[in-house]
Design brief:
Blueprint: E1 5-11, H1 17-29, E2 33-39, H2 47-54, E3 78-81, H3 84-89, E4 98-101, H4 114-133
Parallel strand pairs: 1-2, 1-3, 3-4
Helix pairs in contact: 1-4, 2-4
Length: 139
Amino acid sequence: MVDKKRVLILCTGNSARSQMAEGLLRHDAGDRFTVDSAGTKPSAVRPEAITVMEEVGIDITPHRSKHVDEFVGQDFDYVLTVCDNAKESCPVFFGKATRLHHSFNDPAAVEGSDAERLGAFRKVRDELRAYLNRFPQSD
């Protein structure tokens, strides 16, 4: 059995970007990685994130928004930050973890019709998937 690498994906609210990234990486590379996500100011998983993930066959309804403090003292191989705020306020207790950062637009900040908001979530979902498909070679 291959030893899976542990990955923690961080964002501010742990409500959209990091939740979608967790679902995508688990779905696409769960044979290689054990994946968690957390936020520096957790809130709740956005319904739009659940909807656009269902569109690609990934169910994140069991996910919950978690505070980064839940992972204090745990060892990770990789810590990915997917927003600038999380990068700036990310605790440095993750030991020897390789830290990677790539900022994605916050789809939750988009105002407009349901269709416009869902479009923003789809765009970020697809950008996350493209980024994670290159992981761990990502920048």
